[in-house]
Amino acid sequence: MARSSHETARYVYGVVRAGTGGKPRGKGIDGKPLRIVAADRIGALTSEVPVGPLEAGRDELLTHSRVLEQALKRGVVLPMRFGVVMPDDSTIQQELLGAHRERLEAQLDEMSGKVEFNVKAIYDEPSILREVLAENGEIARLREAVAGKPEDATYYERIQLGELVAQALTAKQAADEQRVVDRLAPHALAVEVGGALHERMAVNAAFLVDEEQLGPFDRALDEVAAENGGRLRFKSVGPLPPHSFVELSVEA
Amino acid sequence: MATAMQTQPYRGGSGYVARSSSSGLYDVLELILDKGLVIDVFVRVSLIGIEILTVDARIVIASVDTYLRFAEAVNRLDLMATETQGLPEMMDGLTEGGASSKTKGVLQGAKEALFGDEDEDEDEGDKQPARRRSSSSSKSSRRRSGSSGGSSKGSSKS
User: Fold this and answer.
1) pTM to 2 decimal places
2) Which of A49, A247, B12, B91 is surrounded by the most beta carbons within 10 Å?
3) Residues A83 and A122 in one domain
């Protein structure tokens, strides 16, 4: 990475409690050492970057994530969004830590001992299409109607068929999302439903879980996944820092 | 993208959930580009490559092509009850319907080519966009930080 500037700025990964958890371990973006810029009881987890545009490549994105995951192991951390760069230490101390101290300290307290889990569930396509066929007479009828006929002759029927399938899947997605979230929510402090990122995705939700509740949350996840075995594939990422549950308003 | 990636090791109680303690590139995109603290517009520097990444990560399709692919998928579906099925097809049907399906839908391959398989994280779909670095245009990703928090994810993509 040819960054030829000798001027440096501070990349900010997140906000932590200063003076706890010891020195940050690991490397930041471009292999630069991590450093905490503190002001009173709170601090920003930073590393040096050149002044100017920041490359948002695979390495940089993953490093941002890894640094925060490591920080979480040492204590509570409020993740910044990717790409926050400030010119120097005093700007961090004044405009981030100083100006927003109250909100930041409140959220550090609030997020202490809590972690985020991201749960996604993906449909097994053959299984879900079978369900759609079995539950929807019109789709089954149209399928029969176009079966074995030349594609050219059934163009519009096939579009109609596909559209009905897409509609049926959308309805299924909403129902499955609700069902899964309802099962997991009792074991979480907060839920952020992200919505499906593509048509095979049934559930995409973030859960804020108290570390004391990890066992029950995991069991509930296993149960709902087992009940949907064969039709939905579940993926859970976590424990993560509470990306989806922190906020800071510049107008504050 | 010919192979189905089974990258996440299954662990945990039931074996029905692929658990990972660390986010892959696919998860990262959603989490760290759209969520987390932002304090002001001016401190968020221009990011090279970010527009491509986010656009590629969220393709919403509702088109004739999609419908035709769905139609093809249901048409090719082997129904277990079909009497014209030979034994091998019956077996396929049963396997596919079973709890531990290892088979891949006809259409699935095509869609993975479009979306990338969300399980693969690191190795396929995301790689190229992430590596595609434009030296000529550094698109600055300006976001109103005042609208941060909660569900600001939809900004320009959904």
Assistant:
1) 0.73
2) A49
3) no
